[in-house]
Amino acid sequence: MEEQTILAEKYYTREVDTDKKSIYCHHDLMGELMIPTHKHEKGQMLYAEGGIVYVTTEAKTYFLPARHFIWIPAGIAHSIQPNSQSVMMRNLYFPVEMNEDSFYGTEGIYPINDLLLQMMLFTNRWNGNLKKGSRNYSIALAIKAILPEICLTNLPLSLPFPKDTRLIKIIDYLDKNLGDTILFSDLADRFGFSERSLYRLFQKDLGMSFIQYFTIRRILKAIELLLEKKLSVNEVAQAVGYNSVPTFSNTFFKTLGQRPSDYLNGVEILKKNNYS
C-alpha cells in the first residue's frame, strides 16, 4: 500500500497539473491500485469500463458503474478505488476557464451516450499533456464543451456518510440485510427509536428519508451483482430485496434510465467491440 501511495502521489502531483494550460489525458487498467485522497487544479472527467469505481469525497461515496462517467470539479479532494482488477479508467483533466458553465462546478455521475462514448474511445491512444492549439487538444476540448448540452440527468449514484454514531450502526445493519424486507417501524423498534425520531435523524444527518437511502443502496448493490454476471436479473432482484421483478426493473429504470437487461446488454456490446 505504501508503494501504491507513492506511485499515485507521483502521478497526480507531477503529471496532471504540471502544465496549467494543457488538457491531461490518462488511460489505465487499474489493477489493485487504490489512489488515496488528492485533488487537482483541473476538472476531471473519469469514465469507467469493466466494473465499478468508488470515488469518495469528504461528504459522499460515489458509485461509478461501467459506461458512466463522473465529473469532479477542480479542487475537490477525492480518493479512487476500483472493485475489480479489470476496471479500465479513462481520464481527461481540463483547465478551469473563465465564466464556465455551472455544470463544471458540480460533482455528478452521468451515462455515456453513443456520441460521447465514441469521442472518449477516440482518445484511447493519447496519454499525457495535450498542448493548447494542437489537434488532439481541440478534440478533447470539444468533449468538454458538449457535456452541459447532453448530460442533463445527474444520476443519484452516491450516498452520504452518516455522522451520528446511532445512525452508523443502523446503516451497517441495512448494508448487511439488503435482501430482507425491512419495515421502517421494525427498524425503529430494533434500535430503540420512535418512527418520528428516526425519520428526523435520517433527514438531519443524511438529507434523505430511509426509503430514499435504502432504495439507492439496493440499486447500487444490484449494479454490482449485474456486473459480476453470476446471477440472472430475477436472482439479482431477489438478492436486493425485490420479490417482484417488474418493480425492481422499474426502480432500476428510474435510477439509471435503463432496464437491468438493457444495462447488461450494453456492457456486452462494449466488450464485443473490444475498445480497451
UniProtKB/TrEMBL annotation:
Assigned keywords, A-Z: DNA-binding, Transcription, Transcription regulation
Coiled coil feature spans: none
Matches recorded under InterPro entries: AraC-bd (IPR003313), Homeodomain-like_sf (IPR009057), HTH_AraC (IPR018060), RmlC-like_jellyroll (IPR014710), RmlC_Cupin_sf (IPR011051)
PROSITE patterns named in the record: HTH_ARAC_FAMILY_2 (PS01124)
Source species, domain of life: Bacteria
Entry GO MF terms: DNA-binding transcription factor activity; sequence-specific DNA binding
HTH araC/xylS-type domain mapped to chain residues: 168-266
Protein name: AraC family transcriptional regulator
Species in which this protein is naturally found: Flavobacterium pygoscelis
